[in-house]
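User: Fold both of these, please.

Assistant: Here is the first one.
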Amino acid sequence: METIVFSLLNGIIYGLLLFMLSSGLTLIFSMMGILNFAHASFYMLGAYFAYSIGSVTGFWVALFLAPVLVGVAGAAVERFGLRRLHAEGHVAELLFTFGLAYIIEEIVKIVWGKIAVPYKVPAALDFPLFELFGSQYPAYRIFMLVVSLAMLFALWYLLKRTRIGLIIQAALTHPNMVAHLGHNVQRIFMLVFAAGCALAGLAGVIGGNYLVTEPSMAFTIGPIVFVVVVVGGMGSLEGAFIASLLIGIMQTFAISVDATFSDLFGWLGLSASSELGGISIPSLAPTLPYLLLVLMLMFRPRGLMGAREF
């Protein structure tokens, strides 16, 4: 029971962190049709900005200022890069963001170095919040849970219940009509891209000290974010939320299970070869999201709640 409860809590928190990342990517794709390969790089920038700002002002100022700076960087990328390539089609946009990811990584190495930086959990949240089954649970993880849920509600309310959200959605399907109503469609797209990057930056602020802040962090978590978006359904925030929790819980439970295939087959009354039986379940945890991706593409290419195709 202890393993189940803690694995469930950790899986939900990790899943919500994945959602914070994937929500920005989903927002950009659903509104603009751009699949941003550099999205995880903005997550990395959020962590590094928070580390640098927090070392001067403290964590709480960095929590608000770092995502804003990442959003400004995203707005500049859209205004001076992607906007010029939009007429060339999606292939040009993909290649641009693919190259941008490597450029950002090299800039990070030049500015902050090639090794991990000591971005730590703030002292105000570095204490056990409660004790369960004789083990203490960190307060910072619950803080991550609260921030993620608050972001989810704010994003849903903005898109579904406000005039701004209606204009953003209308700008995708009926840009000419929105322009005739007096709205600057290009500026709307720039702000949407900036908001998506800022969400990734926010994930970096609260996830950089939970995981690790180092130059390869974008390429470590980036592929999983694309798995979340595809499994959830391209353009669906609801699908991304479900897929994030599913993958987070699935990976966490796999890591916590101290068993091999030999044990698993034994429980089922079967036998396994020595090569297969010696494989441990935790060693397969990193591959589970991609196995889910393959199965989803085979049997339901649109994803769980797909709203848009490539």
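And the second sequence with its predicted structure:
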Amino acid sequence: MLQNIKIKLQNWLPKLLLTRLAGWGAGKEGGWLTKLVVKIFVQHYGVDMQLAKNPDLTSYVTFNDFFVRALREGARPIIGDTNWLALPVDGTISQLGSIHGDKIFQAKGHEYSLEALLAGQPILVEAFRNGLFANIYLAPHDYHRVHMPCTGVLREMIYVPGDLFSVNPLTAAHVSNLFARNERVICVFDTAIGLMVQILVGASIVGSIETLWAGTIIPPRDGIIKRWIYPVRGEEEVIELEKGAEMGRFKLGSTVINLFTAEAVQFAPQLNHGSISRMGEAFAEIRTMLATNELPKI
């Protein structure tokens, strides 16, 4: 009964208005009020501030400053084995596994298509058909910066407008096409294992999504798909990010989805539905390496 009420409330509540208000408030310098909100948040969600580079709660000027706090050096070492990819975020594995044709498993009784998730980009849809996916949910207490699982050259970024449903496990189990309905930022990389996509999914109360190369992508929320193309390897102003490098961040929590081409990697055997993700730990073992001239054109 309570679960049904929670789901129905998401349909009834003005999610965009609430998200804008949350984003506005989180960016304000509220003095004592900001310090009180941060203290209550830490206590309520059990945030481990010993992992933070700056553990002093009273030093954060805005809630956003606290929420995107950096980790102390050595808190999340990056797996050094070059045959392994690193987990990109702290969080919980919602789902991971094979893409069947163009269908991705969301929860029991629910799946969504690559075409819908990737905003109908035909080259990308074909590249990841029968590939692999991983969906990692970031809870409020988690570290909210997003890192690279492997070294890659940024080729394309797509902003897709959409809904602002919560992306917690309850919503994923009851709202069809959740991750293909919510707004998101799709980042496409050329890597040694082929194309790799990392998607930052928006959600209710997520005031902002940022990338390191472009700054704030959301807001604004213009209601139109936007696409940016970047230089290829060897060209001027190429954007190359090393394995473990920060690539983006959420101002309030959400989900990261990774897509890999067929036969590119094999996920670490200890990872499955419900597994804890710790940024930098073993994510997937490389199965196939590609030469630069073998990468598909986008």
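The first strand starts at residue 84 and ends at 86.
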